[in-house]
Write a structure and sequence with these properties.
The structure is a homotrimer. Chain A is of the alpha/beta class and about 130 residues long. Chain A has three helices and six strands, in the order βαβββαββα. In chain A, strands 2-1-4-5 form a four-stranded mixed sheet, covered by helices on one side.
């Protein structure tokens, strides 16, 4: 039940956007024990004046393709799993032709009872 | 002070979208003691490539009208209130002609001090 | 590492939107010890049927320019810092010609390990 939101510049090619989304999901599967089928991603394409991002804060060099990936998922992942997640997303993004400096990630956490995947049922009650 | 975000496919009719929004709010009022006037909802309409949702994860069957409802609200609701919320949203969606399998819900929680409803005032100080 | 999302009506002039964004960032710097360079903001412009906001809940009077500012940032700010943040955002918005009643703020919190500002690195490891 991660819910990933990719905020990308509107000019980013659909192909690259999809590769980034694939990379984010693969990273979650690989590092955070997310089932392969557990994919829920939203892509928000924003115009230049919709992304006001500092060009260098945090010791990186952001360019016009900079993206922000926000992932809400279950609490309980360790710090090292999160570190591995960041690395895997950046590597996957790089494999897609993106610059790793252009991929920022923010995580939000909730509880098992906080998800209903459909049909009005709490996920915790169907698994 | 729930803030509900409805992520819906761009093709969903405005009428249906509004009914879903109404159902979400009615469910919050009915199950989570949200005041009837306490309605704050954002609707984000996304193109097909902006919603990458697994078709069946969680034991449901998602179709092209699948939506993701994200609700940020005050911590403190019980597990059973959340269960009732999911049920009520799905029932309301069904009454609007939507398939209950197409309505996913994710909850995020914060504290009373984390809301200002306007005028620069913390909500906790005006109630 | 605050990540601020400004949900504004699509008709809000770009100039005013930018001033609101500036006000939000200045308020974070002034009241919450956010570094001046630590600016990450997303602006989502929504049509009228994308913002379903009660006109008066919380004792304010919302108009057609009502906005919702959502900020995800590190836990640890005190209640008084949050109060000061709300005041500063409203004052900055007013200086930009907006009505303070039209600016709602919601805060979400996470942990230091929950941020990667780029390059696949956890922010906690590079600072």
């Amino acid at each position: 039940m991660p819910l990933a939101k990719l905020h990308v510049p509107a000019h980013l090619p659909l192909h690259t956007t999809r590769q980034l989304a694939d990379a984010v999901h693969a990273a979650l599967v690989q590092t955070c024990a997310v089932p392969a089928g557990d994919r829920f991603q939203l892509v928000l394409r924003l115009p230049p004046d919709g992304m006001l991002l500092d060009a260098s804060f945090g010791g990186v060099s952001r360019g016009p393709d900079a993206c922000i990936v926000e992932i809400a998922f279950l609490q309980g992942r360790t710090d090292d799993q999160k570190r591995a997640l960041y690395r895997a997303i950046a590597e996957g993004a790089q494999d897609s032709g993106m610059r790793p400096d252009d991929v920022m990630v923010a995580l939000l956490e909730n509880d098992r009872i906080d998800w209903s995947l459909g049909r009005g049922q709490a996920y915790v009650d169907v698994h």
